[in-house]
Amino acid sequence: MTDTVRLDAQGAVSGPANVNTARSYRAVSGHTTTADQLGPLADFPGFWEGTGFSIIARPDFDTDNSDGFFLQLNLLRETIEFLTIGSPVIDRGSKQNSIPLFGVTYLHRVTDAITGGALHIETGSWLVIPPTTEPANNDTSIARLSVIPHGNSLCATGFPEYVVPTGPIEIPPSNTVPYPIGGQPPPPGTKNPFRAYDLSLDTPYRTRPVPPGITQAILDDPITLLRDALAGQNVEHITRLIVSTAMGGGVDNIPFIVQNADVTSFDSVFAIERVEGPQGADFMQLQYVQTAPLKFRGMIFPHVTVGTLVKAF
Fold first, then answer.
1. How confident is the chain (313 residues) per 10-residue block, as mean pLDDT?
2. Do 229 and 143 contact (CB within 8 A), yes or no?
3. Which DSSP category does 40 fall into?
4. Hey, CA dihedral for 103, 83, 80, 43, is it positive or negative?
5. Structural domains in the chain, sorted by start
6. Are 161 and 240 spatial neighbours (Cβ–Cβ below 8 Å)?
7. Least buried of 147, 208, 252, 293, by fewest C-beta within 10 Å?
8. Which phi and psi (to 5°) does residue 132 adopt?
9. Which residues contact 73 (CB under 8 A, 6 or more apart)?
């Protein structure tokens, strides 16, 4: 008989180092046991589809364009598929005992809702991090890791928040007003000084025609679309996943991005909502907002994306 090989509490292998013994034990717990450890990510696994909106200013070299950017507006059609990571991932500690991480991987595809053209594809992971002593954190935290083929990768950390709504759902506004590098985002309601952001003014330096249904209110605050989607819905429970590079992690870019349209921070909120559907049948809805500030020509231009998706499978 082969010798027994075991996994200790930290996931390390113990027992004789015989290659044949690797076939005599199951290395991971059953899928259901692992899925039970997902905590705030428990409703992620599955296939989600829906619509959204993106606003991004991109550099423009037209000598007649004194603002130096083109404002691109896109209605989105998007899908996200989340898969449970089938075993704990062990992070080895040197100042405290090792910790097990549980999580999901995902693939996010985004196309233009009008033309069908490809806009965005992203792979990554969401992780659940247990309480730790080094660093000191008594609560469960979360992390989002993303890779984008523009040449960006990011790690953003944060926390979950659980809400049982008792009235209208309040979502803070997002900022789309550019501001100088080194400055602070302007307060809500600040008038945008650039012509391209004013839909009452014609300009060749903005998407033409403006996507149907996009109003000045949506351009000023894309969160308007999320609020509109919630109108008339009875949301029974919300799990918010709030992450930011300001809370830990960071953004890495290829040299071209660094020199031409640098991104050094990232924020996002994903809200997993249980909604009462027709005849009392609940369905799962995912709403998100994320902001990636682009730095070029002395200014910071907020790239804001929002979406509302439902779990299809």
1. 44 46 53 82 98 98 96 98 94 95 97 96 98 95 97 98 94 96 93 97 97 97 98 96 98 98 97 91 96 97 98 95
2. no
3. G
4. negative
5. 1-36 (no CATH), 42-311 (2.40.128.20)
6. yes
7. 208
8. -135, 160
9. 53, 54, 55, 206, 207, 210, 211, 214, 219
